[in-house]
Structures are given as C-alpha cells and as structure tokens.
C-alpha cells in the first residue's frame, strides 16, 4: 500500500487522534494541528507530561495513562524519541502511528509495522486532510 493510501485509510478510519507531544502554546504546530483537526470533527486526546489542558481537552502524561482504547497516535516529538513512543503505542494497543512533518525513524517504522500498525512518517495531518478533503467520520 502506498503512503497516500495509508494516509487516506487512517483519515477515514479514526475519529479520535491521541497526540503525543501536544503543546499548550498556540504558536506551535503541536497545538495548531490538533486544534485544526478538532475543527474538522476529530476528537483529540493530548499527551504531555507538563500540561493539564490543551485545545480544551484533558491532557494525559503518557500513552499508558489514557483511560480508553487508543487507535491513532500522532507524534510531535524529535525523531530520536519515536522508537520509544512506537513501543509505548504498541503496548497501549494502538493500531496506527503517524509521525508529523520532519519526523522520521526507521526503528520506529520497524517497531510499528512489525506489530501490525498502520504507519506514516514525515507528513502533516493538516496538509493531508486538506489534500484529501476527508473529515472525521467520512
């Protein structure tokens, strides 16, 4: 399956996005992207150990602290952090891992794909949502 096909499958399948590295700072992409995706109908679950509320949603310190089934994990952390995040996503039962624009890791890819997760790296959710026109629940 091509990356574009995986992107479209993810956008059509998941209505909730768990955002690792979400930011409370509105000038950062890690705040802008979740806010935009929320405006297009996705539910956002922010994960950040230093915040309590981001884009109007309760924040959880780690993926393991999210009290519900996780599907799509969207990552705003340095590439070097992503293998551990991939392991945590697998442990949490996630089924898709998306690394934002500028973030890529062969090791994270191998961890995710070997566990059967859909995987996208170095792509922006806003750009892909606009390109495809897909909205939550589509």
UniProtKB/TrEMBL annotation:
Tell me which residues make up the CoA-binding domain.
11-103
Q: Which InterPro entries match?
A: CoA-bd (IPR003781), NAD(P)-bd_dom_sf (IPR036291)
Q: Name one Pfam family in it.
A: CoA_binding_2
Specify the domain of life of the species encoding this protein.
Bacteria
Please identify the protein, giving its name as recorded.
CoA-binding protein
């Amino acid at each position: 399956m091509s990356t574009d096909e995986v992107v479209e499958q993810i956008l059509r399948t998941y209505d909730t996005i768990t955002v690792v590295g979400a930011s409370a700072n509105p000038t950062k992409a890690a705040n802008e992207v979740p806010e935009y995706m929320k405006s297009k109908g996705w539910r956002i679950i922010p994960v950040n150990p230093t915040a309590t509320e981001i884009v109007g949603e309760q924040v959880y310190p780690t993926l393991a602290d999210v009290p519900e089934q996780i599907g799509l994990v969207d990552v705003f952390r340095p590439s070097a952090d992503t293998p551990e995040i991939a392991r945590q996503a697998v442990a949490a039962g996630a089924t898709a891992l998306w690394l934002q624009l500028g973030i890529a890791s062969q090791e994270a890819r191998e961890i995710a794909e070997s566990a059967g997760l859909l995987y996208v790296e170095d792509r922006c959710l806003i750009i892909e949502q606009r390109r495809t026109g897909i909205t939550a629940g589509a």
